[in-house]
Amino acid sequence: MTDQKTPRSLPLSEAMTIAAQAISEVIEGRSLTEVLDQLDAHERPIVQSLTFDTLRKWVRSHELIKQFVPKAPPPEVDHLLSVAIALFLQSNSDGKGYAAHTIVDQAVRSCDEYEPTMYAKGMVNAVLRKVSLLVQPPEGEKRYPPDPISMFLPPWWRASLKKNYPKAWQAMLIQQAQRAPLILRVNARQYTRDEYQSLLSQAGIPSQPIEELAGIKLNSALLLHAPVPVVELPGFYSGAVSVQDAGAQLAAILLDPQAGERVLDACAAPGGKTAHLLELADCEMVALELDGARLGKIGGNLDRLRLHSDLVRVIRGDASKAAWWDGKPFDKILLDAPCSASGIVARHPDIPFLRREADIWTLQQRQRAILTQAWKMLNPEGLLLYVTCSVFPEEGEHQAIWFAAEHSNALRLSAPGQILPTEVNDGFYYALFKKKGP
Ligand SMILES: C[S@@+](CC[C@H](N)C(=O)[O-])C[C@H]1O[C@@H](n2cnc3c(N)ncnc32)[C@H](O)[C@@H]1O
To answer: Domain of 116?
Structure first.
């Protein structure tokens, strides 16, 4: 298959309308990924960029709305204002982007969708003109200071970060409110990292290797200086490369699969780590996933990366039960458990809007049930790698301590533990256990 062309984009006013509707759906409790997945290819890039920035700048945009609108506006107008103000704030912080009059004009146009139209247009016009004077003032006047912490977090989440990371929590939040860079994993079956970096530079896409993370050497990670649509990456459709955060790339390296080993990826969709394991070795792979809709993505990814073979089985099943298992034990198990995803909010800024405090306990129980069952399916001398993309200790270190206390045959090996998010990686937790022999 040949690489396709970048899709045509949308007029800004239409994109703002769709983005405001998407924000409304997130506020009502829907995942932004699900909402974006329903868009046409030409709509997605711009709407994704607008919605991500809107959610990242939620606190600041609402301070401004409150300042200029004494009575809270109807939700659809509030969400359109938030999209437009995020555009102002983004332009203010990176000096790029749209001129103030364009943002006002396009936002007013997109009010044609709302009833009563004249009321919405009047309010949007008045508020955005005032905001524009603050954020993009005339030459020589003082600029609105960029806000270090503009991301929304529910109070229980903020309190947990403060308590667990008293020194690092503020820097972590500032980091997570920034646009996340695009990180690639080069498919080691097709190219070395150096070879692929040359291909990128021939295509005019500057990049740099990420050599290590948490003291562990990364052989395939590349950071792009400016993100590009994946369709523009050389060989993307023939499987040369995948988009995968540097923190996520540690999983396959830590599990270190070998040819001929029987490996279980217990919570596999969409298959990023399954694929990485298969790029490293000809192992016999069982990729298990509970969610039928997500299961299909595993096959799609393996096909694109040319990793499908007789050695790979993709199964729908519940990792906390044995019903799907043929009884043959595994040499290695990757348990990338369902979790709060609190470590990946830079790439999923809707998560703080969707999580509830009680979810953490529920997730903890689910993780324990999967850990308990997975351990029974592991060979003596086998390895189990427990992973979450969370920064809450309840889903990380507390689980590892609980697990070791419950299983006298579990030997804890060296692994990074809690990794906090930085500009090149999301937040992850890693614990590695070896099953002592009989
Ligand atoms: C963190 S994601 C896995 C990401 C994947 N390892 C990757 O790198 O692409 C966790 C996955 O576990 C699945 N899941 C949740 N509960 C499960 C269970 N009881 N058994 C199997 N899969 C489960 C979720 O549907 C989700 O796809």
So the answer is: 12-135
